Amino acid sequence: MSDDEKIYKKILKAIVEHQLPPGSRLPEDKLSEAFGVSRTGIRKVLHRLALEHFVVITRNKGAQVNHPSEEEALEVFDSRILVEPQLMSAVLKHWKKENSDHFRDIVTQERLAQENSDLAGSIQITARFHYELARLAGNSVLAAFVEQLCYRSSLVIAAFGTVSSVGGVSCDCGDHVQLLDLLDKGDSEAVQQWMLEHLQSIKGSLILAGQDEQNIDFNRLFS
Amino acid sequence: MSDDEKIYKKILKAIVEHQLPPGSRLPEDKLSEAFGVSRTGIRKVLHRLALEHFVVITRNKGAQVNHPSEEEALEVFDSRILVEPQLMSAVLKHWKKENSDHFRDIVTQERLAQENSDLAGSIQITARFHYELARLAGNSVLAAFVEQLCYRSSLVIAAFGTVSSVGGVSCDCGDHVQLLDLLDKGDSEAVQQWMLEHLQSIKGSLILAGQDEQNIDFNRLFS
DNA sequence: AAATATATTATTGTATACAATCCAAAAAAG
DNA sequence: CTTTTTTGGATTGTATACAATAATATATTT
Helix crossing, A70-94 with B70-94: angle to 10°? Predict the structure, then answer.
């Protein structure tokens, strides 16, 4: 892996794991010193992160970690809601015993991270569950899109996550094991439905300041 | 608009309009001379184009216009097939008379470009029809994704397009007016179905065939 | 003459210097 | 004391110099 790639991954990791919270400034000289390279390489990485919406660059003012707007937050999850459930039938077609084992291993790691209150690891591994699953659908263009959406989701959670969603790292609404059981059963319809409700549940758990009391759905709240 | 942005758009335009065919080399010094800026700005643009899969950069060998693999070609269209029809119901919800007028204007321009055998303009305007429609769904994250897929489609057509699909710029399989009529009628089901068949038809018209490379005068092309 | 080795050339990779811009603090005016 | 102006420092934007690498051409050897 190239030098730039390593720096890119390290900074991205720090962002999605909430070690660099939204709004954090990312000065080029500080970073170049920290990574032991010149500003040139850092600038390349920062521009890439900007294209992928992880940082915002303002001319003559530099880069800072993106603080997603409420609108962006909803759009990211709506995108996942549109794409991820649709991928499930293709995933099921390729589903093998070894996949099941692999993903059950991931879930174990998820549990472990949560038990140890390892927030950073928990976020990383939970995102991995989703985008590695998407990869099984066999379309790398869509897989790359979903992977980016998962990382952006982590940023959204950092900005708008509830206590529970941060503690359960955006997936407190059920256990990924349930999905794996459905996949093993081969129930395509149920798998798709589960994924849909899973993502809607996370989206619903976001706290959006613009949400006033009149917009609360009491039917859903009390049922 | 910033200087880089202008250069980016010009090169991207040249690529999607098939003025820089797949495989064309893009040497930094030639481009910096043509645009009258240093290599620094050119490199930034080339790296962006690489992230978006319009060019491929090989270490110490530089950039060249991406020649999509057959696999990539199919994946791009499968992605559009998964996303675009799904957006149509949201598009219909926002559909207004003024939208209809606007898109009928676009179709007129499409016809005009085709009649004048203006291949470049035809490609551009046809892509615009699709991604401006996607924008009406009200999700900018998905809209940006579709826009990129439309541009990548142009590249795919450059590599694998049939004579008819190039002549009709990937949309010989029917007229976009049909879709507009369905939208005006408000038939959500039919709109979605039309878009699905439309994209499947284009995908089906792709074929495997080589393409040759030639020497390009960058000064002339960009000045 | 064929094959290998070497030298040359062209092109990209990286660091750095300098210019342009913005921000904040201090000085001057009202 | 408040407001405006100015000045200094910090940070990014851009160009360029030099190093590293790959491709090509030339020379040498078998």
Answer: 130
